[in-house]
Amino acid sequence: MVKLKTKLYLHPLTQRAISSAGSEHLVYTEGVGGSNPSSPTTFKNRSFCFGFFIMYYLYILYSEHLDRYYIGSTEDISVRLKEHLWNHKGFTAKAKDWEIRYSENFLTRSEALAREQQIKKWKSRKLIEKLIASRD
Q: Is the pTM of this model over 0.90?
């Protein structure tokens, strides 16, 4: 058997460990022997972790500098917004003035992703602005 050596790095915003191969790992400092602890269990299609249900969010960001909207989904909106404002490559790297204009919460990741895809398929700025105005 060959042991692969990978280095773990902490993501600066989420403080989760990322291996040099790019996969995410939870950091365990307890020195527990044996196999890794199991992942969070699900209960009736809801993620359940440490006694709390995990919520998932659809969000719409707006940049005044670009005069553009960005639609996404996540488990934690505040961390995700920080990641959009952080130095990175991608569409949101073009501006540093992104702000949350709209959000919806869901019990499952698949529901949030489905809603994200639904709104993206609209391809209509007017419909997105109408959706945002409906919450005001």
A: no
Q: How far is CA 135 from CA 8, 40, 62, 129, 130, in A?
A: 42, 33, 15, 10, 9
Q: What does the pLDDT look like over 11-43, one tens digit per residue? A: 555 555 544 444 444 443 343 444 444 444 444
Contacts of 11 (CB under 8 A, 6+ apart): 17, 18, 24
- Helix or strand holding residue 43 (H, E): strand 41-43
Residue with tokens 């602890």: 37
User: Rounded CA gap, 37 and 96, in Å?
Assistant: 38
Task: Name 132's bridge partners.
Answer: none
